Every structure is written in C-alpha cells, then in structure tokens.
Amino acid sequence: QLRGTVQPAGGFNDDGDAQVLRKAMKGLGTDEGAIIDVVTQRSNAQRQQILKAYKAHYGRDLMADLKSELSGSLAKLILGLMLTPAQYDAKQLRKAVEGAGTDESVLIEIMATRNNREIAAINEAYQEAYHKHLEDDLSSDTSGHFKRILISLALGNRDEGPENLTQAHEDAKKLADVSSNDSSDSLETRFLSILCTRSYPHLRRVFQEFIKMTNHDVEHAIRKRMSGDVRDAFLAIVRSVKNKPAFFADKLYKSMKGAGTDERTLTRIMISRSEIDLFNIRGEFIDLFDKSLHHMIEKDTSGDYRKALLALCGGED
C-alpha cells in the first residue's frame, strides 16, 4: 500500500492560512518558520486553495510574494510545493532541456516513473506553461534510441491491464534473444517495444520468465548489452517496475552520500513523492542503507531548508 508523508490538514481554513502567510512576509524580515509550517503541512490541493484565497483577500500573487521573500534552496522547495504536481514536473523537464546541455538523468527519472494519468497531466501543464509540446522539446534535445524511448514514454499510453502469461513468455524470449547476427539496433528496439508499452504487472511476470530462461536478471542483461543514456533509461524503467519506492530511496541516498549534497535531486524527489509514496521510500531507505532518511537529511542539510525537508519527511524511522 503506497502512502505519502503529507496528508490533507484537518480543520483546513484557506483564508486563515493566507493570513498567516501574509503576516509572515509583511514588513521587515520574513518569518520562514511560519511559511514552512503552513506549506509543508497542507496537501497540494489545499495549497492551491490558499493561492486563490490569498489573491482574493489581498489582491496579491502569493507565488510572487514568496519568491521575493525567500531565497536559495528553501525558495526552490517552497515554490515547488506551491505548484501542482504536473506543473512541477513540467518545470523540471523544461529546465532539463533548455540551455546548453541536457540533464538526461532528470528526463529519465520523471519519464520512466510516471503513470499514464500523470504523463497526460504533465503534457498539458507543459503546453500551457511553455506553449510548446513536451514531445517536440524532447525530440529536438535528444537523439537516437534514447529519444525514441522518451517519446514513447511521453505518449503516456502504457497498457494498464493484468499480466498475460503466454505473452510474458514471448516477451521474455524476445528480450533474451541474443542471436549473433543481431544488430544492436533491433535489440534496443525490442527492449523499447516491451519496456515502454507493457503494464507493470505484466512486466513483473516478463522479468520472472526472463530469469527462468537465462538464469540472470534483466538488469544484468541491460548492463552488459547497452550503454549510456539508453542503458540508464531502461534500468530506470525496470527498477521502477520492480520497486518504485526503492528506486527513489536509492536516488535520495546518492544525492546525499559523500561530500556535498545534490540539492536539486533531493528537493525534486521530496516534493514529487511527498503525497504519493514518501512513507514507503523511507521504509526502503532504512532497509537498503541501514540509516533513516530523516537522519541523513538532518546530517546533510542545514537551516530552514533542513527544517522544511524534515517536515516533509514526516518523522524518524
């Protein structure tokens, strides 16, 4: 059972929250603590109501006020939480493709883990915010098989049915087939046609069949036979199918381990998973790394940014 760490607040009063936020930003200085308390302890739907109440009550744009009062990592976190999930994902994708380089890891993380409904909402939010189709931007910014994988995922028409055993056996055979006259081209194409279109329950069965046939895991095959972004994208899909919370726990751990913190990744995952499966991610985190997500955030971040992240994390395991 998937559950987030952020639940809708009981006894919610959008007008009251709008007043608290206005008071926190009026005059000299900013009461970051008050802003963190309100924003991290409301569901996204409630935050959308606060935006409207703030506008109705003060004739001001809450996003603009927050932007001018907050800075750095805290600003990115709070402003990200105020966007709808689809707007937030669209913005992250846009950032990943605009400018000189492309941030492939962000494209992979988002496109490989969202369901059809989420993808449809992202496409709509992207079009609305940037007056361009997400598909066109992905297309002009990537190439080859990697581009084909992203475009296929961006269509958001993954099958949603149950497993089909006969089909799963056929699919596994297709993935396992490494006949020597095989060009790498058809290999990637075969993986794409199965990994990007079949339902999650069906793919789980395909992976089991694959192990029976080859005596090794499909991840091993991908690592051995592919490279670069194509490999990373297929691995992300496979891991997401097997255990999505574990996939994100691993990314969170990597964002904080060693010297320095990858705050962009940390912020992005904490925002995007807070109402979906962050509670499960916490469980996987402690299982995988023998320390709690809460502990690692506490150790690795500081100040108001830390305070806000810990509020989203919602407790020590």
Automatic annotation (TrEMBL):
Keywords: Acetylation, Annexin, Calcium, Calcium/phospholipid-binding, Cell projection, Cilium, Cytoplasmic vesicle, Nucleus, Phospholipase A2 inhibitor, Phosphoprotein, Repeat. InterPro entries: Annexin, Annexin_repeat, Annexin_repeat_CS, Annexin_sf, ANX4. Pfam families: Annexin. Gene3D superfamilies: Annexin. GO terms for cellular component: basolateral plasma membrane; calcium channel complex; cilium; mitochondrion; nucleus; zymogen granule membrane. Its main location: membrane. One of its GO terms (molecular function) is phosphatidylserine binding. It is a peripheral membrane protein. It is found in: Basolateral cell membrane; Cell projection, Cilium; Nucleus; Zymogen granule membrane. Belongs to the annexin family. A pair of annexin repeats may form one binding site for calcium and phospholipid. Calcium/phospholipid-binding protein which promotes membrane fusion and is involved in exocytosis. This protein regulates phospholipase A2 activity. It seems to bind from two to four calcium ions with high affinity. This is Annexin. It comes from Phaethon lepturus.
